[in-house]
Amino acid sequence: MQRRLEKDWELSIGPDTVRLFILKAKALSAAVNEDYADGAEHEVELDGESHVNHHHDGLAEESSENLTEEELRELINDLNVDEAAELIALAWVGRGDYDATEWADALAAARERANKRTAKYLLGMPLLADWLEEGLEAIGA
Question: Which superkingdom, per the lineage (predicted)?
Answer without folding.
Answer: Bacteria
